[in-house]
């Protein structure tokens, strides 16, 4: 059966909870377990028999890093991979409807749609076999998993027939408990899905004609009609029609909404490498560093033999790790340098950052409840009760940490050279300039007359605003 896959990668207005890391590379290219986040999706799709093409769909402008990734992935996997750029954010259904001719070209009989901000075992072949066993040739499949009753409210909830797995009711982020089966953001469609999306598009156009004021939020009414969401606009209508089914997986699954969830996702992927990519896992060797648990080390990294790494550690390209260094539950990105006897725990060390001798950089993990088999990682809020929520420590790119200091539960913005220890703080860059903006090469953020950072679309970490915009 000719198949295709569409991976929804979003755009620069998305992923605000991933800042400041998403300023350096598009969020889908952020390294998780040693490879770009979206590469896990691409590799899973390429393994499905009959896969003819993989399409990345989003509204990022042409990007050098994205271009390099596409070329590299095509050469490695030997499958066509293309990027389709939306003219604006069209929603999870609007984008695939806009490019329906590209998706169906070549006679694809079915296609997968995957959200880039999830990590999973990606049981795509199992979903295909399930679709062939259940329902007619034009039925659609949602990948589902089980969450606990409280956390299920944060996801799309699915009520399904226990015998046939037909979806009878679907609610996106309900206000009260509906079901413990949640939507994983991975779908299998046939070309018939475009008829249902087209009906939503026609309805949107009719509503704009009848009530043109609905289009005020957008630059024009046509764009407004094109914005269509799979979850709220399509699945809700399809539920109970005999066309929509859920395939429940017991494999691992998690969202990657924040930097803290990236460390958790890295742990899940590293654990999977023992079966899928054992060559990516570092091993204890004579004269090499001490490896504890699952660790990825890029071949170009320089690691002292007295360093201790793991569990759940990813060391990027060109990283230097000195003598006596201890790294655990962390991601160390391209070009970073960890000097002798540093301790890095529950931290993301940004590109080209430096941590001085005997320094300690530590965060607080945001893992799911280990005593609840159905617990998911919570969506983190930056502040709680007026205080910074304890979470992993994030060092932006080109951050310098001096020797013998301690950084705990803090976010350090890019290009910052620290001079002392910090705890539970967001460390900004510099004082406002005369024009009233914080200066950083290539970007700026509005501040109030008192020098406080304002909340806006370009704010690095969406700080609460203490002044009026």
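Sequence proposed for the structure above (469 residues):
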């Amino acid at each position: 059966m000719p198949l295709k896959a569409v991976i929804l990668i979003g755009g620069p207005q998305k992923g605000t909870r991933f800042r400041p890391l998403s300023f350096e590379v598009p969020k889908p290219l952020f390294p998780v377990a040693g490879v770009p986040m979206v590469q896990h999706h691409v590799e899973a799709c390429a393994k499905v028999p009959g896969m003819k093409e993989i399409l990345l769909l989003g509204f990022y402008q042409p990007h050098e890093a994205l271009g390099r990734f596409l070329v590299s992935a095509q050469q490695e996997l030997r499958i066509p991979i293309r990027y389709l750029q939306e003219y604006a954010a069209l929603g999870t259904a609007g984008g695939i409807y806009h490019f329906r001719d590209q998706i169906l070209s070549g006679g694809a009989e079915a296609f997968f749609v995957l959200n880039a901000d999830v990590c999973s075992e990606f049981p795509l072949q199992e979903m295909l076999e399930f679709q062939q066993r259940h329902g007619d040739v034009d039925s659609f499949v949602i990948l589902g998993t089980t969450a606990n009753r409280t956390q299920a409210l944060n996801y799309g909830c699915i009520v399904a027939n226990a015998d046939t797995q037909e979806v009878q009711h679907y609610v996106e982020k309900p206000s009260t408990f509906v079901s413990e089966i949640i939507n994983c953001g991975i779908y299998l469609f046939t070309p018939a899905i475009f008829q249902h999306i087209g009906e939503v598009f026609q309805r949107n156009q009719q509503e704009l004609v009848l009530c043109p004021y609905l289009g005020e939020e957008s630059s024009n009414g046509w764009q407004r009609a094109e914005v269509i969401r799979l979850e709220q606009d399509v699945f809700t209508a399809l539920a109970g029609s005999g066309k929509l089914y859920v395939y429940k997986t017991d494999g691992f699954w998690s969202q990657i909404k924040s930097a803290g969830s990236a460390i958790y996702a890295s742990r899940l992927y590293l654990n999977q490498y023992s079966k899928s990519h054992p060559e990516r896992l570092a091993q204890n060797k004579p004269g090499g560093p001490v490896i504890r648990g699952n660790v990825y080390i890029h071949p170009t990294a320089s690691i002292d033999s007295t360093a201790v790494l793991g569990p759940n550690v990813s060391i990027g390209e060109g990283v230097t790790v000195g003598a006596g260094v201890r790294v655990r539950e962390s991601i160390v990105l391209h070009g970073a340098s960890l000097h002798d006897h540093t301790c890095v725990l529950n931290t993301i060390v940004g590109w080209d950052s430096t941590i001085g001798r005997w320094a300690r950089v530590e965060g607080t993990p945001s893992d799911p409840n280990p005593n609840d088999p159905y617990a998911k990682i919570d969506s983190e809020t930056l502040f709680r009760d007026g205080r910074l929520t304890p979470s992993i420590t994030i060092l932006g790119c080109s951050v310098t940490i001096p020797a013998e200091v301690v950084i705990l539960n803090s976010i350090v913005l890019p290009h910052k050279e620290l001079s002392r220890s910090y705890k539970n703080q967001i460390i900004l860059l510099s004082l406002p300039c005369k024009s009233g903006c914080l200066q950083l090469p290539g970007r700026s953020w509005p501040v109030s007359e008192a020098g406080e950072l304002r909340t806006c679309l370009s704010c690095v970490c969406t700080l609460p605003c203490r002044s009026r915009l």
